[in-house]
Amino acid sequence: MKRALVAAALSACSSGPSQSERAPPSVHLVVRAKAGSGLSLAGSQIEPTTSLLGLRTSADQLELDVRVGSPSVTVTTPSTCPAEVDLGDAGAGETRSVTLQPWLSIAGGDLTQIGFDAPFTVTLTPGCRDALASKVEWSQTAGEPVDLQVEQNGFVVRGRTRPLAAPTPWGIVPLSPRTRGEVELTAKSGKHSLKVRVSAAARASGLPSLALSARRQPAIVPARRPRALGAGGPREARAVPGGRDPLRHAPRLRP
Q: Please, is 80 exposed, middle or buried when counting C-beta atoms within 10 Å of its C-beta (0-12, 13-18, 19+)?
């Protein structure tokens, strides 16, 4: 009798969950953003929602569990073109993947160090036919005002950086985002938007960057005198009579 009871208990334990408790078969779908695009997958929407059994997110991709037998699913985000993935022939446990394309993009990214009072051109690349058929509207959202000329239904915008606001003093000139002629332009296409930064020069603190150990390293000194930056272009730098090299005569620092 005891043996019969033990056998019945083991049989019940080994039977596992019932058919109704098992997860339905699914297809594994991996959704990634285009490499190097910097696109965020936050706010993604999956349609139809009835086909979605599970969702896992990470920094650069989504992992979906889609019900087997779903003809297709469509993935959309605020900054990418919608992607429809055909899953009609996918079997249980199979893995499919899709890469999302940006709605709008710029080859090379932001425009930097293009010079003061210099022309610039921003050309947008649509990521899909829907983006190509849309109209792009431009506005300046930061920086000193610049004139913009919009062409080709908004996919090309031209402008000119502002001239240097004030005469430069002698020596290394500090440049802030305002004085380096930086502006921010925003392109809007339907519910999508893209920000572009254009700057005339790189940001500079006005202080030379020299490591303490740099004096111990051999340096290659040109035969002619060094040149100094300042108004009127570079010119020769001459030593001040009676002057001292502050780095050479500074006390040594001990660790």
A: buried
